[in-house]
Amino acid sequence: MEEPEVSTATRMSSIRHQHVTVALTDDEDNDWDVDPECSICFSAYDNTFKTPKLLECTHTFCLECLARFVAISPEQAGTQITCPLCRQPTSVPEHGTPDLATSQEVLGQLPSDQQQVENVFLDGKRLCYSNPMIPDCICIDIGEHKAEEPQRREERREGCGHRLLRFLGFHGNWKRLVLFIIVLLVVFFVILWPLQCVVISGSMSECFLEQPMMPTTFASPRPTESS
């Protein structure tokens, strides 16, 4: 008795068109997520200097970038910060940008050991972080040093003459300046004055040719008439 033939082509085509869908677990899905980062410095958020801070416009940036904005914006005197994206102002708390609201949504996306905000505070133009496990504070500069500000203001008051002297290396050295002026005068009389003569007269020979000396004539005594 002959057995019925089975078409393998149909079976292979049906297998070829089947799609297997595997559901990813939560841990595998989180591996594909990108760590949230600040849209200004493109650094990943953390729970210290890069703490995600929430502005009144609901935009989020890291603490360090916002602290730098306040430090270099004298027009608001540190009382307001303007959002870099929508330009909406946000009032700065009394103790500075570290007291701004922290974005709990972004903080919850960080690793579990970074979901607790550490103690970060302002110390003049520095942003400092203190940890009971570390004896000293860790600080970063967020603005100009106070010792440099008077010097920079003095440089802004200097006129063009002082800046030119500083550029040529004569600022504070009058002997070198006097010598430079003497050299300029020598160059003018030795090179520029003959050149000016050539341009005016149109001939180099007329400028450098010595003038012929006029012969000196002596009047001969008149003969006296004899009587």
Automatic annotation (TrEMBL):
Domain RING-type: 38-87
Keyword Zinc applies: yes
GO biological process, one term: protein ubiquitination
Keywords noted in UniProt: Membrane, Metal-binding, Transmembrane, Transmembrane helix, Zinc, Zinc-finger
Ranges that cross the membrane: 177-195
PROSITE patterns per record: ZF_RING_1, ZF_RING_2
InterPro entries: RING_finger_E3_ubiq-ligases, Znf-RING_euk, Znf_RING, Znf_RING/FYVE/PHD, Znf_RING_CS
Pfam families: zf-RING_UBOX
Gene Ontology molecular function, alphabetical: ubiquitin protein ligase activity; zinc ion binding
Protein's recorded name: RING-type domain-containing protein
Taxonomic path: Eukaryota, Metazoa, Chordata, Craniata, Vertebrata
